[in-house]
Amino acid sequence: MVIPRIETEQHGELNCWRLTTAHAELLIAQQGAQILSYQRVGEPPLLWLSEDAIFGQGKSVRAGVPVCWPWFGNLQRNPEPVQAMYTGSEAPAHGLARTRDWQLLAADQQGEGLSVTFTLPQAQGQLPGWAHNVALTLQVELASELKLTLTSRNQGDSPVTISQALHSYFAVSDVRQVQVEGVEGLSYIETLAEWQQRQQQGALGFAGETDRIYLDTPQTLSIDDPHWQRRITLTSSGSRSAVIWNPWTERARELADMADDGWQRMLCIETANVWDDVVTLKPGASHTLGLVIGSQAL
Ligand code: TA6
């Protein structure tokens, strides 16, 4: 009988916590409040941790769930109100939260499960080039499923507009064999073809580099992995957009923190607020982006 426990660990330059329950194990770093790995007992990992991951200060780890905030991707590709929030010079990809140390606010046992909550204190007016006052928290609940809750509350006296994502890397047997269900018929932005808007025919399979923003997404998406006889389910809340990414061969070779064949074993589905789904918070208002990750036998 495993008693739920939380232990500290060091990985390279990063302070981490390992959460262990009778059902699952999860590793989370202080930098970015980034989940690095997640595995349920008796199953292959659910979240992917790159074999060539670099655990260094100031760079997001190629793994798990980086938190993209207060903008997603290239700031210049964001709607104007998101861009207008930032007055700094070079805007780092995927925002300012994933490369900074968060603070552990709470660690609790919940029955057979565990919950940890992190905050990014600098989001309350001390982020370089982003002088807004937002209370930002990420709660991670590890029970029979994994539940992530990212809450932004505007504590300032003028509106704040953000884009964001839980940039989740899922582990798969072979990306060429899996399908993403739930996107059938959706409009998407094809970022690899001049950001044209297109329509998805059927479920999504992978036969090349993929980097798409799906619009008006349903609450549940899933990844069917016949070889591992597993369906991963993603149930979102507070989100109407999702980014689906696989770098494929050439892009993977360019990434120092991914093995040349690493693209075969991963697939990102990023529960997001992007494109026409960005979030404007009036003074005092809050928004919660939620994701529950589960799995079933196929
Ligand atoms: O979410 C897709 C994406 O924006 C891709 O374009 C790709 O660059 C990926 O994220 C990873 O970005 P990163 O900055 O973590 O290397």
Describe this entry's structure for a reader.
4% of the residues lie in helices and 45% in strands. It has one domain (5-297): Distorted Sandwich (Beta-galactosidase, Chain A, domain 5), CATH 2.70.98. It has 298 residues and is mainly beta. The chain is globular and about 50 Å long. It is built from 2 helices and 21 strands. Strand 6 (103-110) and strand 7 form a beta hairpin. The site of 6-O-phosphono-beta-D-tagatofuranose has 10 residues, from strand 18 and strand 19.
Secondary structure layout:
Blueprint: E1 5-11, E2 14-20, E3 24-29, E4 34-40, E5 67-68, H1 80-83, E6 103-110, E7 113-119, E8 134-142, E9 146-154, E10 160-162, E11 164-171, E12 179-181, E13 187-190, E14 196-199, E15 210-215, E16 220-225, E17 230-237, E18 241-246, H2 248-254, E19 266-273, E20 279-281, E21 286-297
Antiparallel strand pairs: 1-2, 2-3, 3-4, 5-11, 6-7, 7-8, 8-9, 9-21, 10-20, 11-19, 12-16, 13-14, 13-15, 15-18, 16-17, 17-21, 18-19
